[in-house]
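Practice problem: NAD-binding protein
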Amino acid sequence: MKIQTVGVVGAGVMGIGVAQNLAQTGHDVILVDIKAEILDKAQQEIKNNIRFQSLFQKTDKTINLEEVINRIEFSTDYKLLENADFVIENVTEKWDNKKQVYSLIDAICPADCVFAANTSAIPITRIASATKRADKVLGIHFMNPVPMKPMVEMIRGYHTSETTIEIAQKMLAQMGKEWVIVNDSPGFVSNRVLMLTINEAVFLLQDQVATAADIDKIFKGCFGHKMGPLETADLIGLDTILFSIEVLYENFNDSKYRPCPLLKKMVDAGLYGRKNGKGFYVYQ
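Answer key — C-alpha cells:
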C-alpha cells in the first residue's frame, strides 16, 4: 500500500516540517490550519527551509522548490481531508484543542484513514478516545527540524492495531525515516527524559548556578551533545516546553515535573525562542 495523500493538521513549526518532508518524498499534502495568515507564513517558511537545506545538503540531488510547494495544498477547509489516506496532527499541546480537532477530522476522513498524533506528551490512548477509530490511532513523535532528523518515536496506544502500525511503518519508510516503537505513557521515552532535563536546566539558570551559555557548554563539551538543553528549548519553543511539562505534571501528579517559575515567566513575557526571535538566546 502506497500512501499518496497525507493530511497535515496544524501549520506551526512541526506541521511545517512534516509537510515539507512529505512533499519532498513525493507525497501530495493537504496542510490545514484555522487562519489563512498562518498558512501564508507556513508557505514562506517552507520555501526558506528548502533554500537553506539546499545549501547544506551533501548529495548531488537538487531540491526543486517549485515542485515541492506544488505538492502542498494550503487550506483552512478541513473538508479537504476527506481525500486523505493518512493524517498527521500537530496542533498545540492542549487537550481541549486536540479533542476538538480529532472529533472534527473523525467525521470527515475516510473510515480506513489512519490518524497519527505528533504530540510531545499527551497519551495516545486518550487521543484515540476522542475518535470512533481507536484502533487506527497511534503516535508519531517527529523531531525538529523534521526533514533533517532520520528517526521518530512511534507510540502504540492501548487499541492501536498491528495493521495500523504496519501502515505507519510503510509511510515512514516512504519519508526516509527510521523508527523505534514504544508503549503509551505520558511523554513516552524521549520527553519524559528531555522535559525533565530542560526544566532542571531552567532551574539552574533561575538559581544562578551558571549562565545559559555555560549550562549548554557543559552538555556539549562533557557529553558530546550537539545542542545544550536551553538551546534545545529555544529550538522547540518555550511555550511548547511549558505545555509538555504541564501535561507530565498533570498526568503523573509528581512534583518532579513541576514547571520552573522562570520558564512560566518567560512564556508569559512572550519569549518563545527561535520561533519569535528571543528565548534563552537572541536570534536575528
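Discussion: The chain has two domains: 5-183, 192-268. Students who identified this feature from the C-alpha cells alone can consider the problem solved.
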